[in-house]
Amino acid sequence: MASFQPVLNFAIIFIYVLLFGTAAFDKWKSLSTPEWFNKQFEKTFINQLPGKASVGYWLIATFEALLTLVFIASIFNFALLPYALLGSLFLFGILLFGLRITYDFQGSANMFIYFGTTLISLFIVTMNL
Predict the structure, then answer these.
(1) In sequence order, which residues have a C-beta less than 8 Å from that of residue 49 and are 6 or more positions away?
(2) What does the alpha-carbon distance between residue 30 and residue 50 come to, in Å, rounded to a whole number?
(3) For labelling, which of 57, 68, 92, 97 has a CA lying 20 to 30 Å from the CA of 22?
(4) Tens digit of pLDDT for each residue in 71-86?
(5) How confident is the model at residue 51, as a pLDDT?
(6) DSSP string for residues in 91-125
């Protein structure tokens, strides 16, 4: 029976490179924190921290860019793919935290779909290691 594992790995890599790569590119191309992002955290404790919401924005942008690079590297070494997926789980956790403290309940619910899909992808990738 033919193994579809390499094809599944490529499909998983492709979708995450698109997801994180485009998000990181959109953030880094302007080199400024959007006003809507700052406004979103205006009434939270994040606004009291040094750097306010901008620190979080650039942390997320950097994490997305790094994950994109790890996913691209995993094309050449599938052993990196589970680590990229684990990193994605943490990124989705960070995003979920931000959505929850800003009372974006619909966005929070959607983040569970991303998290759950990543868990399924991680299972698919690791079941044949």
Answers:
(1) 55
(2) 22
(3) 97
(4) 999 999 999 999 999 9
(5) 85
(6) HHHHHHHHHHHTT-HHHHHHHHHHHHHHHHHHHHH
Task: Report how far residue 27's alpha carbon sits from residue 87's, in angstroms, rounded to the nearest whole number.
Answer: 19
Q: What digits encode the pLDDT tens for the residues 8-64? A: 999 999 999 999 999 999 999 988 999 998 898 888 898 888 888 889 999 999 999
User: Do 99 and 87 meet the contact criterion of CB atoms below 8 Å apart?
Assistant: no
Domain regions of the chain by residue span? 5-126
**Which positions ≥6 away from 1 have C-beta within 8 Å?**
none
Listing DSSP states for 14-33 in one string gives HHHHHHHHHHHHHHHHH-S-
Kindly report the length of the chain: 129
Token digits for 6? 């390499």
> Token digits for 40?
């979103």
